[in-house]
Amino acid sequence: MTIFTGNPFHPAANVTLYQALYTHLRTAILSGELKGGMKLPSTRALADELHISRNTVLNAYRQLLAEGYLEGREGSGTFVANVLPESLLTAPRLIAPQTAQPHHAESPRPLFSARANAQIAVSQPPWGGRTPRPFLAEVPALDAFPYKLWSRLIARHARQMPASHFMYQPTAGYRLLREAIAAHITVSRQVHCTPEQVMIVPGSQGALDLAARMLINAGDSVWMEDPGYPGARGAFVGAGANIIPVPVDEEGLMVNTGIAHASQARMVYITPSHQFPLGMTMSLSRRLALLDWAERAHAYIIEDDYDSEFRFAGRPLATLQGLDHADRVIYIGTFSKVLFPSIRIGYMILPPPLVDSFLKVRRLIDIHSPMLEQAVLADFIVDGHYVRHLRCMRTLYTERRSALLEAARRLPLEIHSPEAGIHCVGWLPDGIDDQSLADKAADYDLVLTPISSFSIEPLVRKGLLLGYGSYSIQGRCCMNPFKPALAVADWGHAAT
């Protein structure tokens, strides 16, 4: 069944497939090509028709459902809504039926800035609101979070919050939370800071956006680990940076390669404690070499201490920030991976010379972060709940990691299991395409994330992220997903 007759689907080269399909479907609905009440093909059927990933179709359908252009009927399928959002927002017009003329003219295409278009091109499809599925990476164990305790803290603060907390607050964030963070990371991560250097931000993404806004001019070179975190790349591209992909090996970022490619780079983004997505830890010699180069080049290092709280063996190396004597390191942390993603509280540890100027610009963005969640989190840390939760999570993730590694022995994968974090890497046999395999896995409700989706330069070898943090070994055992995973492992069919 084809649904695009008069206007075939031809995505533009400068937008993602997900955005192109969403826009095309929405335009077809508004123009009347897809009429109210019309049943749409299943996501699998439409993906086959258009020769695209089923995940792309799923994401487009989900957004149209959320915005009211489509309706899902249980057991029947997905249909075009009879009453569209535009109809609800438009006042009725007193026009006789015989004089009303259909309106076919499309609205002018929005003219975004060049930087916005660059960010749109590297943005990842949204997955917010979805129930965690097997192997979804970078989502914590939400089933083990102490919800009752957190709810009691919220209720207590909501009842007792003083009137002063309803006024505008300091841009740097709630003082007691900044003190708690400074004390915790000084002991646990060997970070050297005072509460005055701590700025509360909306997650690590907010920190990256602010750092890019403050320190990067259009055309400045920025080193990025390759493969690396797309959110950082998007923030730097939005500031007009020239991204320099720097490969990683078993010791982490290859500093000499970065120097050879762009010795006068303005900034480097790095995840030294647990490299995303491959998981290695940066060696001490590389850390010292990077700090030495940054001091000589007057460059800044963005140290994203991603997943450092979850180590299963040995003690972590000292942070770059703790080794820095030249005020070149901006340290970033977040509670989204440790507690729950929707908390949207992160923090920056700024070198003293940067603090005042960062605060002035931050005031122009969103003034300050919401107060209630900061107050609750401060109590959660100060009262010892945070450290206890970390201990429980380390034990839980150790069990889930062991279960995944045991079950993965049945798969034709070369498993790399870092000593930190909540995912493993499965390297594929030669000739197997990771994206094709991920598309096939979606048919079994599995989330296999291709390593290639995080890389700038082509990878020599293809692989997949296998997350184990969000999926329990009790009840729906984390081994159960390997039954469909074994079916997905029809490698010859998946190869391209």
What features would you describe in this structure?
This protein is an alpha/beta fold. The protein has 3 domains: 1-91, Arc Repressor Mutant, subunit A; 166-384, 3-Layer(aba) Sandwich (Aspartate Aminotransferase, domain 2); 387-494, Aspartate Aminotransferase, domain 1, CATH 3.90.1150.10. It has helices at 17-31, 43-50, 54-67, 85-89, 114-122, 147-160, 175-188, 203-215, 230-238, 255-261, 284-297, 320-323, 355-363, 371-382, 385-408, 434-442, 482-488, 491-494; strands at 70-73, 77-80, 198-201, 221-226, 242-249, 252-253, 267-270, 300-304, 329-334, 346-349, 414-416, 423-427, 449-450, 463-467. The strands form 3 sheets. An 8-stranded mixed sheet has the order 3-10-9-8-7-4-5-6, with helices on both faces. It has a 4-stranded antiparallel sheet with strand order 11-12-14-13, covered by helices on one side. The radius of gyration is 25 Å and the shape is globular.
Give the SSE layout.
Elements: H1 17-31, H2 43-50, H3 54-67, E1 70-73, E2 77-80, H4 85-89, H5 114-122, H6 147-160, H7 175-188, E3 198-201, H8 203-215, E4 221-226, H9 230-238, E5 242-249, E6 252-253, H10 255-261, E7 267-270, H11 284-297, E8 300-304, H12 320-323, E9 329-334, E10 346-349, H13 355-363, H14 371-382, H15 385-408, E11 414-416, E12 423-427, H16 434-442, E13 449-450, E14 463-467, H17 482-488, H18 491-494
Parallel strand pairs: 4-5, 4-7, 7-8, 8-9
Antiparallel strand pairs: 1-2, 3-10, 5-6, 9-10, 11-12, 12-14, 13-14
